[in-house]
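ok trying again, last paste got cut off:
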Amino acid sequence: MARGERVVRALYEQHGAALMAYASRLTGGRRAWAEDVVTETLVRAARARGLGKDTQARLWLFRTVQDVVGEGTDSVVPVGQRRQLAVADALFALEPHHRDVLVTRAGAAKDAFAALHAFKHALAARGVTKSGLDDLLAERQQ
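nice, full thing came through this time. structure:
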């Protein structure tokens, strides 16, 4: 069995169900598309160098699912969902310490400020404006 095949089998056994659930949510429940997304994610994982079995591998897989779904956003994914993808991508792009501060609300005020500042820049790099984020938050509250 080739290295890539071993990697794919191990990653699928460990994360396959969660990846499928996530891809299904991002694709609006379109099972065939979600399956294609997971397959493409695993193909990319087989090509990736140094992808281990730790938490970083799981984060890499989920971010790759987002990327694969995002590559088809022009005609298929609604604007609100594209914003959600961009926000999630920006969160995954943060340094682990900043992400932990934002997600768990742990840390000092200066840590929170630094994390929010980094998140703001990560969002801007993905084209998410303040009004776009406000729209997303309003959608989530409805």
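cool. The mean pLDDT is 77. Helices lie at 3-26, 31-47, 55-70, 79-93, 96-104, 109-125, 130-141.
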